[in-house]
Amino acid sequence: MATILVADDDHFIRELIGIYLKKEGYTVVEANDGVEAAHLLSERAIHLCIIDVMMPNKNGWELCKEIRELYDLPILMVTAKGESEDKVKGFQQGTDDYIVKPFDAHELIMRVKALLRRYKINTADRVAIGNVIMDANSMEVTVDHEPVLFPLKEFQLLYKLASHPGQVFSRDQLIEEIWGSDFDGFDRTVDSHIKKIRKKLNQQRAFDIVTIRGLGYRLEVSRDV
Q1: What strands, in cross-sheet order, belong to the sheet with 169-170?
Q2: Angle at Cα 174 formed by Cα 170 and Cα 176, nearest 5°?
Q3: How does DSSP assign 4-63, residue by residue?
Q4: Does residue 165 have a cis bond before it (omega within 30 degrees)?
Q5: CB 126 within 8 A of CB 98
């Protein structure tokens, strides 16, 4: 299942949210402020963030903005305040959804699941090519049984190509399927992600991600596999 980061300076709230999430099978990582959360994001493969607005050192709005600049993953903000201006500020910083304390456990879980679906996180299959295994259930990649960390969109892009070896995907196709039809960025976003994937997997020999000039990309399996 997905790994979820819970950032809140209230230990009781972190523990409570963790109980709800773990009952659903999710892995939970905790941070007591925005600085610790940012560090965990750089060290772990996180698939969704639940962030409290009022935290010391780095508040939820600052953390949300930083996540949006560096990662592409769903964010659910939690606050004790219900004023519309706070919600507007959260959405302006890039949060995907908002929930107000005290919250209902069922509502929290439904919002988490909705965000994971919106970001098209597959939780059922895995692809193995030679010594490389891509597990869509845990969103993890291993090479020779050693984990290689991938942010969400990099994993989804690699998993898509690996699920259809030999098939050419245009940049537009990949953006549509992974980033969604409402993506308003540049098609070179795909190129940037492919470059990062290649760099992380440059030691493996099971496959290559080949650039098809003027078209897009395809994954070619090595003849030795």
Answers
A1: 169-170, 216-221, 207-212
A2: 115
A3: EEEE-S-HHHHHHHHHHHHHTT-EEEEESSHHHHHHHHHHS--SEEEEESS-SSS-HHHH
A4: no
A5: no
Give the pLDDT confidence of 176-221 residue by residue, as tens digits.
888 887 777 776 889 999 999 999 998 788 899 999 988 899 999 8
- Kindly state the tokens that stand for 50: 């639940």
Q: Are 110 and 18 members of one domain? A: yes
The beta-strand segments (E) located in 63-221 are 75-79, 97-100, 126-129, 132-135, 140-143, 146-148, 169-170, 207-212, 216-221
Range of the domain at 52: 3-118
Of the chain, the percentage scoring pLDDT greater than 70 comes to: 91
pLDDT tens digit sequence for 23-58: 888 889 999 999 999 999 887 778 899 999 889 999
Residue 214: predicted pLDDT: 85
Q: Which of 118, 151, 175 is the last residue of a domain?
A: 118
CA atoms within 13 A on the CB side of 80: 6
| Final residue of a structural domain among 87, 118, 149 | 118
Backbone angles phi, psi at 214, to 5 degrees: 80, -5
